[in-house]
C-alpha cells in the first residue's frame, strides 16, 4: 500500500544525494584550484578575462562560469564587473543581467530541492517575522533585499529553502538587481584590469555608478516604509 510513496521518497533521496555529491565535488575542485594557483577571487576573474578576451566563445564561457558561480559562492559582484571589462557597457549589461537572473534561479532551485513544504513551515515559524514576510509577500521582500545589496547567493538559497514562489522570486530579482548590475558593469567597462583596482576608473562612470547605488538604496527605503504602513494598517 505504501510502495508508491516509498518509491517516490527513494527517488527524491537519490536526486538529493546526486545533487549534493555534484555540489560537493565542484566545491572541492574549486578549493583545490585556488590553493594550487594561489589566486584570490579578483585575480582568478582577471585570469579568466585574459583568457576569454577577443575570443568568439567569450559570452558562452562567461555564461557557463556564471551558472557555476553560485555553487562555489564566487562573488557575484566580481563576475558582474568582469562583464563590463570583457564586453563593454551595453553588451556587458545585457550579458550580466541574464547571467545574474539565471544564476539566482539555480541557487533558488538548489535551495528548494533540499526543502519540503512542512520543513519550510517549521523554519518560518522559528525565524519569525522576516521569514513570514518573505513567504507571504515574496516579491516585495526579495525586491527589498536586492535593492539593499544583501549577499546575493545566500538570499537566493534562503528563498529556495523557504519555498518562496519561483515567479515572485524571479520577477523581484530581475528588477531589484538591475541597478546594481548596471553600476558594476559600468565600473568594469571603465577600468583596464580587475587586479589593478579602481585607480584608472573614469570619474563620470564612477559618479553614475554611485548614483545608481544611491537610487537603489533609496528605493529600498521607500518599499520598507510601505511595508510598515501596510503592516500597521487596521485589518477589516
TrEMBL record:
Alphabetized UniProt keyword annotations: Cell membrane, Membrane, Transmembrane, Transmembrane helix
Domain VTT, residue spans: 74-189
Localization terms from the record: Cell membrane
Transmembrane segments: 12-33, 54-72, 78-107, 170-192, 204-223
One cellular component term from this protein's GO annotations in UniProt: plasma membrane
Membrane topology field: Multi-pass membrane protein
Full protein name: Unannotated protein
Protein's organism: freshwater metagenome
Amino acid at each position: 500500500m505504501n510502495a508508491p510513496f516509498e518509491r517516490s521518497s527513494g527517488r527524491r533521496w537519490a536526486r538529493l544525494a546526486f545533487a549534493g555529491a555534484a555540489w560537493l565535488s565542484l566545491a572541492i575542485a574549486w578549493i583545490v584550484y585556488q590553493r594550487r594557483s594561489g589566486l584570490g577571487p579578483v585575480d582568478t576573474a582577471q585570469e579568466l578575462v585574459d583568457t576569454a578576451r577577443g575570443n568568439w566563445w567569450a559570452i558562452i564561457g562567461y555564461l557557463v562560469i556564471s551558472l557555476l558561480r553560485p555553487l562555489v559562492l564566487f562573488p557575484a559582484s566580481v563576475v558582474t564587473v568582469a562583464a563590463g571589462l570583457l564586453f563593454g557597457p551595453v553588451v556587458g549589461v545585457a550579458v550580466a543581467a541574464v547571467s545574474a537572473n539565471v544564476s539566482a534561479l539555480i541557487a533558488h532551485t538548489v535551495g528548494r530541492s533540499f526543502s519540503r513544504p512542512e520543513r519550510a513551515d517549521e523554519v518560518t515559524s522559528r525565524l519569525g517575522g522576516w521569514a513570514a514576510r518573505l513567504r507571504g509577500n515574496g516579491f516585495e521582500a526579495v525586491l527589498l533585499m536586492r535593492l539593499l545589496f544583501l549577499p546575493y547567493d545566500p538570499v537566493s538559497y534562503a528563498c529556495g529553502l523557504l519555498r518562496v514562489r519561483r515567479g515572485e522570486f524571479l520577477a523581484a530579482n530581475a528588477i531589484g538587481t538591475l541597478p546594481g548590475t548596471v553600476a558594476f558593469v559600468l565600473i568594469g567597462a571603465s577600468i583596464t584590469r580587475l587586479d589593478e583596482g579602481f585607480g584608472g576608473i573614469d570619474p563620470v562612470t564612477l559618479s553614475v555608478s554611485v548614483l545608481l547605488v544611491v537610487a537603489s538604496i533609496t528605493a529600498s527605503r521607500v518599499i520598507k516604509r510601505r511595508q510598515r504602513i501596510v503592516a500597521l494598517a487596521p485589518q477589516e
